[in-house]
UniProtKB/TrEMBL annotation, chain A:
It is found in: Cell membrane. InterPro entries: ABC_transp_permease, BCAA_transport_permease. This is Branched-chain amino acid ABC transporter permease. One of its GO terms (molecular function) is transmembrane transporter activity.
UniProtKB/TrEMBL annotation, chain B:
Coiled coil: none annotated. It comes from Yoonia rhodophyticola. Residues 47-406 form the Leucine-binding protein domain. Keywords: Amino-acid transport, Signal, Transport. This is Substrate-binding protein. Belongs to the leucine-binding protein family. It comes from the Bacteria. The keyword Transmembrane does not apply. Pfam families: Peripla_BP_6.
Length: 343, 448
């Protein structure tokens, strides 16, 4: 039982990332009809906003420490962050420690801007082109963004830890009467899960309870009619592209303490996220979120050694297996609109 | 009326055969006057450096390239000479190789066997490279080694740690300076037993490919021989990025040690996840829970950050070694590039020097003469103490380092500390050891 709870927790956590990326993908597909293969790259860009903020906060000047030597035996040049000069060492350390949460504030405008530039500068020219062209151009863009990141940050993962207060793990199980060590779960992963719920909730609330959101939803249902009412729906969809980019970016910002970011992390998530979107139903926002969590949980269960011992390799194919079954029995996906991906 | 002998089908057939003939790789054509593939002219010789320049190991590849460039500089008489001054063989004199200036071409393996073979083939056929070297990844090394055997050039393996490179997939034209999984297990096990005791239960997470299998087997057999029990060994996909589902059950499995047979990004993520799940602070079976990483590199340790602190592993070489060869190399590399070399840089630099030295001692670029000069060659001064290039399998035998993530690093490169230099005798095995069984070295192929 404890292992089942543990894997459900794990699945929810994995599903958080899938759901956030798939939510953004669905927003773009539902509004602009574009299959955005650069969406994983937006997740990666968000992660590197975190890395950049961490680096900026630790910009330092050199102080020579004569008592220590570097690897060549010369006096060691110690890096002293400028933040120490402005705020003192104690306050400076706290700011540096909280680099990842601080990055959220920086990432939102940056990711919206990136989304705007991407949509206005490139993708809008492909709206009337076949899906294959859109896929090619967005995939190409993803590779370009990847290479840009690699050029500036290198290919190795860059450790970017969570704030000290959220490192480590706590004994989840004891609270529910299990033995100690039965359900140990890292604090930051719980933070990530709740953060994703907040972002998902905010997106839904925005679409559900604001006039802007209502118009966008109307546009998603019938773009032409909304346009005939004199509403500049294209402009609103562009804004939605920016919001979708921000959602993917925020997923990346908060993901970096879970796994050190590297330049190809977007590609690692992209294919799975597309499967999530298809399983959830193309264009369905609740479907993307539900499928994200569902597939995250299934993947976690399939990775248990008890399962692998009985069905070797199931951990590698489970998501695709589920996708095949769902698409065979319900081509529109779990919550997809009738007619989408159906004859 | 005369009747033509050429039918449409005949013309097509002839054309196809002629095209195939023209398309034959150059190394399959007769080259009677030299007797071997890509014999160099009088003025220069070309070496092929085949490293990952893109993909997850690109930083490692970049460090290898730096080392290659340094080796070429030293061979051609530039710089401070690096380890040429400490190398026990004094055949190299800084005038290139056999009087030819050393030139080089580079290729991008992308850490993919097919891409690595394609770039190696291009360097041999188009650029005239007489020796191919590079890494990383055992899959790439095995694939390129087989190609070099067919082509008739020497392959001086770079970063490849799988037993199979000099085990079941060994080739007469291939040589490996780097250590292997068996050696890691043999060096690590006694240190682990000394630090953690002999009554331990290990849980292995293993990268699901050749290198992972041989490393798991090596560590399992070495630790079990000292009394450890293996409670589970789970394969993890190479493409896995989040290992939480695999790590979460470990604490309740009855194990008190987690062995991460992972490398590169896999290791960085699995170790990070293991630390997140509190395994470092946990207790099991009345003992502190421990994590072991059989193969370390400084670049990986950098990626894993503070998570490596106190964790044991093995490495082929480390810049903090204090022998004269290592100090000379670190000074040379560090002065040129501003940071210390990685083990990948070290092994590729050494391989280049060893190749050049073998050619010089043989007095010929003929790969069979070079192979003969390398086989059972004993040397010193290249950073790992006395070393033997064993003729039976073309594997180098030398001391192996057991390292531990440093608790209090003094600078950004000071991530690992050497806890034991395991003597070569302790990591030496017979050529027909079961972990290296199968395959034949075969005969040297000079090509042409």
């Amino acid at each position: 039982m404890d292992q089942i709870i543990l894997q459900i927790l794990n699945g929810l956590d994995k599903g958080s990332a899938y759901a956030l990326i798939a939510l953004g993908l669905t927003l773009i597909f539902g509004t602009l009809g574009v299959v955005n293969f650069a969406h994983g790259a937006l997740f990666m860009m968000g992660a590197f906003v975190s890395v950049t903020v961490s680096k900026v906060l630790t910009i330092s000047h050199k102080v020579v420490d004569e008592s220590r030597t570097d690897f060549l035996g010369n006096p060691l040049e110690v890096d002293v962050p400028y933040l120490y000069d402005f705020f003192g060492q104690a306050a400076g350390d706290v700011i540096i420690d909280w680099a990842v949460p601080i990055s959220i504030l920086v990432a939102i405008p940056i990711m919206i801007a990136i989304g705007f530039i991407m949509e206005r500068g490139l993708i809008k020219h492909f709206y009337k082109r076949p899906h294959a062209d859109q896929i090619l151009v967005t995939f190409g863009l993803a590779i370009v963004l990847q290479e840009v990141i690699k050029y500036f940050y290198g290919a190795n993962p860059i450790p970017t830890p969570a704030p000290e207060a959220f490192t480590g793990s706590f004994d989840f199980g004891v609270a529910f009467g299990f033995d100690p060590n039965a359900i140990i779960y890292p604090y930051w992963r719980l933070v990530y899960f709740f953060f994703s719920l907040i972002v998902i909730g905010a997106v839904f609330a925005f679409l559900q309870f604001t006039t802007f959101g209502m118009v966008v939803r109307a546009g998603m249902a019938d773009r032409e009619t909304v346009g005939l009412l004199g509403i500049d729906i294209d402009k609103r969809f562009t804004i939605m592209f920016g919001i979708a980019a921000a959602v993917a970016g925020l997923a990346g910002v908060m993901y970096v303490p879970i796994n050190p970011p590297n330049y190809h992390m977007g590609m690692d998530f992209l294919v799975l996220s597309f499967v999530v979107v298809v399983v959830g139903g193309m264009g369905s926002l609740p479907g993307a979120v539900a499928a994200g969590f569902l597939l995250g949980i299934l993947e976690s269960f399939a990775s248990m050694s008890a399962v692998i011992n009985v069905l070797p390799g199931i951990n590698q194919i489970i998501i695709y297996l589920v996708a095949i079954i769902i698409l065979l029995t319900r081509p529109r996906g779990l919550m997809g609109r009738k007619g989408v991906m159906e004859e | 009326m005369s009747k033509s002998n050429f039918s449409r089908r005949g013309v097509l057939k002839t054309g196809a055969i002629a095209s195939a003939g023209l398309a034959l790789p150059t190394y399959l054509r007769a080259d009677g006057h030299t007797g071997f593939t890509n014999a160099p002219g009088d003025s220069e010789v070309i070496l092929g450096f085949n490293v990952p320049q893109t993909g997850p190991y690109a930083d490692e590849g970049a460090d290898e390239l730096r080392a290659y460039e340094l080796a070429v500089e030293h061979l051609n008489g530039g710089g401070d000479g690096g380890m040429m001054g400490t190398f026990s063989s004094k055949a190299l004199d800084g005038t290139g190789i056999l009087g030819r200036e050393v030139k080089y071409v580079t290729g991008d393996t992308q850490t993919k066997s097919d891409a690595a073979r394609a770039s190696a083939r291009s360097m041999i056929e188009k650029d005239g490279a007489i020796m191919i070297t590079g890494g990383s990844s055992s899959g790439v090394a095995v694939a390129v080694q087989a190609l070099c055997q067919e082509a008739g050039v020497i392959f001086m393996a770079g970063l490849t740690h799988s037993n199979d490179t000099t085990g079941k997939d060994k080739r007469a034209n291939g040589f490996r300076h780097f250590f292997n999984s068996y050696m890691s297990g043999a060096a690590l096990a006694p240190v682990l037993a000394a630090n953690y005791g002999t009554d331990r239960k290990a849980y292995h997470l293993t990268a699901d490919y050749n290198w992972g299998y041989t490393t798991e087997e090596a560590v399992k057999s070495s630790t079990e021989a000292l009394g450890w029990e293996t409670v589970n060994a789970v394969k993890t996909p190479l493409t896995q990025t989040d290992f939480s589902s695999y790590i979460a059950p470990v604490l309740n499995s009855g194990a008190d040690v987690l062995v991460l047979n992972h490398y590169g990004g896999n290791m960085v993520n699995s170790l990070t996840n293991a630390v997140q799940f509190g395994l470092r602070e946990a207790q099991a079976n009345g003992q502190n829970f421990e994590i072991v990483v059989p193969l370390y590199s400084r670049l990986m340790a950098k990626g894993a950050g503070a998570n490596v602190k106190g964790i044991f592993g093995s490495t082929n070489w480390h810049w903090s070694l204090q022998d004269e060869g290592s100090k000379a190399f670190v000074k040379s590399f560090g002065t040129k590039y501003g940071f210390p070399p990685s083990q990948a840089a070290h092994t590729t630099y050494v391989q280049t020097l060893l190749y050049a030295d073998a050619v010089t001692r043989a007095g010929s670029f003929n790969p069979c003469a070079v192979a003969e000069a390398l086989e059972d060659f004993e040397f010193d001064g290249l950073g790992n103490g006395k070393t033997l290039y064993r003729g039976a399998d073309h594997q180098c035998f030398k001391d192996v380092l057991v390292v531990k993530g440093k608790e209090n690093p003094e600078n950004e490169f000071d991530l690992l500390e050497i806890v034991e230099v395991t003597p070569v005798d302790q990591v030496t095995y017979e050529p027909d050891h079961p972990q290296f069984a199968g395959g034949e070295l075969g005969a040297c192929n000079p090509g042409a």
